[in-house]
Amino acid sequence: MELLFVLVRRLAIFHFYICLNPRIFRPVDSFINPFALLTSISKRRLKAIFGGSVGNLVEWYDWYTYSAFALYFSSSFFPSDDPTAQLLNTAGIFAIGFLMRPIGGWLFGTLADRVGRKRSMTLSVLLMSLGSLLIAATPTYRQIGLLAPALLVLARLLQGLSVGGEYGVSATYLSEMATAQRRGFYSSFQYVTLIGGQLMALGIQLILQKLLLMEEQIHDWGWRIPFVIGALLSVIALYLRRHLDETRAFEEASPQRKKGSIGELLRHPKAVLTVVGLTLGGTLAFYTYTTYMQKFLVNTVHLSKGESTLISFLSLAIFALLQPLFGLLSDHIGRRPLLLGFGVLGTLGTVPLLTALSHASGPWEAFVLLLIALVIVSGYTSINAVVKAELFPAEIRALGVGLPYALTVAIFGGTAEYIALLFKNLGHESYFYWYITGAVFTSLLVYVFMKDTKYTSKLNAETDG
After folding, report:
1. Which of 62-76, 181-195, 374-388 is least confident?
2. How far is CA 143 from CA 74, 111, 147, 226, in A?
3. Three-state secondary structure readout of 342-389
4. pLDDT class for 447, splitting at 50, 70, 90?
5. Radius of gyration of the chain (CA)
6. DSSP character for 410?
7. What CATH code would you report for 43-252+263-461?
8. Average pLDDT over residues 253-280
9. What three-state secondary structure class fits 303?
10. Where are the domains of the chain?
């Protein structure tokens, strides 16, 4: 383990040296130091990245706070002597939230294609804040009985509607605001902020655990604090999004087309099916290694809640930093090689990785194994949004990205946690590992036969100036 940390430290020193020395690797300087690109981006595009991404961060923070704090509030809504049964109930409501995502993808995608990306993104932030406030204010089961879980379901339905619309619209907005040469880099910030939302949730959890509250206090009332914070952050996101510019691609979209309609979407069946196949394995792997992993580390690896939170936080921080690197790499070599890498490594490595992780002897071994898994998943997460946006013309892009994606995530991503816990409860946890493998292999078949969208992108003739 010491050798591993020495190697990581030396690689970090080498990375910063070449980033700060302009005489080294000048031809590929933008790839080695992608953050240097931010200094050369126009003010308008920086505003677009920041405004579009920060709102995305706040929405995903609110969404992931539920998963991060489920270990604490599950007993408040579902009294039981079996902790796995409590988690099954909270995971079931987490999955219910995903059922609203296709409706959100349709509603906000239609709005974005008809009245603008900016208005749609602003409305989605408002809806998410309502869901967070409702969770923060809902009394416990002991106080109001069955009404407590019913209100929790309502809050998750509102949040699911919001997040379902957010993905497609923000992916469309960032892709349309990007230059053709740096579209992968720009769009990767959607997952930087998506992961950043989870990091914020975990960071607040660590602060509450380590500095501010006792574990009993978090169980009793402290879990409400992050939901209140999320509602307050939504006000900031709302302000930023109200001052965004609309994309030129939307403003110049053909007025003769029936923009944002299901009928228009069905004129692109190949693109729709590609989005479904592209998403299937990636979303299942992503939600397994992010939202479910905290519970896996506690229930299966038998780490403490504090250790599982810290491991998740550190691994996700590195995961977020990888997204611009992989996105920029796709601008150099294309999108398809990264997807193929994820498909092959995910198919071959999922069962060995999760099996080894389930038998990890300590927190650092678990951290290294989880980090390996997240590096593999980065081949999908960093570019999947831009690949989908590149499949559709402007008049149907937000709906085309959002609806088929949301349907696939609702079926596979949203149920990942529930299926994993169900297999564990039945005594066959390893079945879930093979389930992920089958899904990733299915996506791999799509990656093998699809064209590289970097070179066939519908955005190439529409890039915002």
Report:
1. 62-76
2. 15, 40, 9, 21
3. HHHHHHHHHHHHHHHHHCCCCHHHHHHHHHHHHHHHHHHHCCHHHHHH
4. very high
5. 21
6. I
7. 1.20.1250.20
8. 82
9. coil
10. 43-252+263-461
